[in-house]
Amino acid sequence: MLEKENKLAEQIKKTFHSAEVKVMREKRISVQLRSNLIPPFLSYAKELLDFKHLAHMSCVDWLEDNEFELVFILWNYDEQIQIISKTRIPRDKAEFVSLKKFWIQAETYEREIHEMYGVDFEGNNRLGEFILEDWEGMPPMRRDFDTRKYSRETYFQRPGREDAKDVRETITKHSGEEVPDFAKNYTIRQ
Amino acid sequence: MREKETTLYLGPQHPGITGNMMVKLKVAGDTIVKAETHIGYLHRAFEKLMEQRTWTQSFPIVCRICVPEPDPNEENLARAIEEIEGREVPERAKYIRVIVLELARLASYQLWMGGQSGSMGLYTMPQWTVGDRDYILDLFEELTGGRVYHMYIWAGGVRRDLPEGFADKVLKVMDYLESRLPDYDRLLFENALFHKRAKGVGVIPKEKAIEWGVVGAPLRGCGIKHDVRIDEPYEVYDKLDFVVPTHEGGDVWSRAMVRRQEIEQSISIIRQAIEKMPGGDYYNKIPNPLTWRVPKGEAYVKTESARGEFGYYVVSDGSEKPRRVHVRGPAYVHGISLLEEVLKGANIADVSFIMNSLGTCPPEMER
Amino acid sequence: MTPNINEKDKLRIREIVQNFARKHSLWVLAYGTGCGAIEIPPTMTSRYDAERFGITGSATPRQADVLLITGYLSTKTLKRVIRTYEQMQAPKYVIGFGSCTINGGMYWDSYNTINALDRYIPVDVYINGCMPRPEAVIEGFIKLQNLIAEGKANGAEKYMENLEWYRENQKKIIHNWQMPDFNW
């Protein structure tokens, strides 16, 4: 049943010996590589294997391993297989090479990852302000940025109504009934 | 004698722009030499908010990403969670999901027709189509409780069953919309002014379309036949009978023709789904939503919305909150890098026209 | 004997006629600042016809009367909204649309959206909901019309009198202040 995907996995492993290739399900293959092998792998997939559509490019923050994981997702329209290729780069020295000469839309993904995570893409001269304006502080999508604290300090919060803090009290006061059993156990989180 | 070059800012407050973005144009006379897009006016930091909400609390957030058509987003996230967890969805729920998705697609096409003709100066069309779209929103209100944001599809199925008599109401609205199509044709699609204005404008070259990342109706308007519903069928699209139209040319007119033919296909899909719907369960109940943990894994799922291919990359690390949800909308490529390529050599009056035809939607570009 | 109308009553009659004219011709600026802007086309077109109340669209700020803030505001948009608001000519009114203008709504803990609108620009009427139905929008406009008839819709004067307070709040979140001192 998964013959197409297994054949493709064998073909990739013949050229890239150190890649970890896994067939996730029908039409999905995941490839894990070292970070210096990603540009040759993407060029090989695009030109030789006909994976011409760059569907997505993303970044995940693994704070506990001290690494960023860059994810590149490609699609082949004829074979109808999706490759999810991943690599890990160190968090304190996050830099990578720009792929905008392969696909022009890669420039947009790289601008966003640079602004949200702080990863530097060499060769992309349009890095800078993209979505946020006059942002001073650490890149906001990193796991150690606390957005609730920032919002509480910067923006004025309107105080709530005095008689509506706990809905159970308000309802019992206005209706004169007891709190039912199923509603007694929930605690209110701040 | 060369004309002098000036810079124009088609800024965030402009009645001709689809949404809140800025296009900085460098013009020589009436022709655009270089275009630069500036976005960021609608950024709400959805992906950061989703890392602090539980899995069930993410659904009301996710439907606000795409404002004219919120249902493909909910369905995408639900399907990603079901794929990571291995949860089965009952058959009846899949048929109901298909009906909701196609109704949302019809509503989005009505709004598109209004926008496309409004940017050309034909103001009768928005009055008709936005008024007809309201009948579809009435159906949504009876089914889900809200006109615009539904929060109806969630992981495991749908939230409640169809009310009594709902199927007949849907069929009546479908008959009404089908009877309006000849009027739309006579006013917009066979209009000689529309032909003159739209042919040869905003051309995407066919050999570069896939490499530039074009998806959806603009890709089918170049003559390339690809659609997620036939490439990788999801829900019950492999059991329904429909045709995916294409058109040669790659300009605004062929994209409009593709969308016009898809309206008829959507009406036919809804009728087939109502006829073939089985009985049974509509929900595979999830455990207590406050303590529900999705096992470790990742998934990438796609849906075809009215504007193109919506992709969700979801990573779960075994806790009760998502680790990373990254949304890729079709307008992310169409509205930033593709727009800057296509606008070269166009007139100033055609900027809004081309933007409407490519389907740029700033809320989904910036989330 | 001819009736004797003194000066105070003449002024009051002039005000009544002026307010009657103003409230029946409200031009709304075409600026959809947030996701609430999707319910504005149904309100203005043929089903929930708002034009029978005199409400119609306007293309530029200099010709508009009402600024409809439909939904949340990010800090980038707030800078443009302040400049647009100051370019409008008095008498002008602001309607806060949706629960995001009241207390932040769903995005209360986001690092990019403001939580209370009337610390930055003066608001006359709030319409709550997420999002409000077209009938609720029209009811909000009728409430604004009643306020105008009584002479209580004076957000613009409040802004001019307390300009330093508003500026202090605005400069706290907009760091790169590159705007003229005032625009009217």
Strand content of chain B: 5-15%
Q: Into which percent range does the helicity of residues of chain A fall?
A: 25-40%
Characterize the main sheet of chain A: 5 strands, mixed
Order of helices and strands of chain B: EEEHHHHHEEHHHHHEEEHHHH
CATH names the topology of chain B as Cytochrome-c3 Hydrogenase, chain B
Low-confidence stretches of chain B: none
Strand order of the largest sheet of chain B: 1-2-3
State the secondary-structure class of chain A.
alpha/beta
Supply the helix-strand structural class of chain B: alpha+beta
Strand content of chain A: 15-25%
Count of helical segments of chain A? 5
Task: Specify the CATH architecture of chain A.
Answer: 2-Layer Sandwich
- Shape designation of chain B: globular
Number of self-contained structural domains of chain B: 1
Rg over C-alpha atoms of chain A, rounded to the nearest angstrom: 24 Å
The beta-strand count of chain A equals 7
CATH homologous superfamily assignment of chain A: NADH:ubiquinone oxidoreductase Nqo5 subunit
Q: Using a beta-carbon cutoff below 8 angstroms, give the protein chain pair with the largest interface and the number of residues from each chain.
A: B-C, 35 and 34 residues
Residue ranges of chain A: pLDDT <50 for 5 or more in a row? none
Number of helices of chain B: 14
Superfamily at the CATH H level of chain B?
A: Cytochrome-c3 Hydrogenase, chain B
Kindly describe this structure:
The complex is a heterotrimer of chains A (190), B (367) and C (184). Chain A has helices spanning 3-15, 38-47, 106-117, 147-154, 167-175; strands spanning 20-25, 28-32, 53-62, 67-76, 81-90, 95-97, 120-122. By secondary structure, chain A is α/β, with parallel strands linked by helices. Chain A has one domain (3-176): NADH:ubiquinone oxidoreductase Nqo5 subunit (Beta Polymerase, domain 2). In chain A, the strands form 2 sheets. Chain A has a 5-stranded mixed β-sheet with strand order 1-2-5-4-3, with helices on one face. In chain A, strands 6-7 form a two-stranded parallel ribbon. Chain B has helices spanning 46-50, 58-62, 71-85, 91-118, 124-144, 166-189, 192-198, 217-220, 228-231, 252-276, 331-334, 337-342, 351-358, 362-366; strands at residues 5-10, 22-28, 31-38, 153-154, 157-158, 297-304, 309-316, 324-328. In chain B, the strands form 3 sheets. Chain B has a 3-stranded antiparallel β-sheet. In chain B, helix 4 (91-118) runs antiparallel to helix 5, helix 4 (91-118) runs antiparallel to helix 10 (252-276) and helix 6 packs antiparallel against helix 10. Chain C has 184 residues and is of the alpha/beta class. Chain C has one domain: Rossmann fold (3-Layer(aba) Sandwich), CATH 3.40.50. Chain C has 7 helices and 5 strands. Classes of the chains: A alpha/beta (190), B alpha+beta (367), C alpha/beta (184). At the B-C interface, helix 5 of B face helix 3 of C.
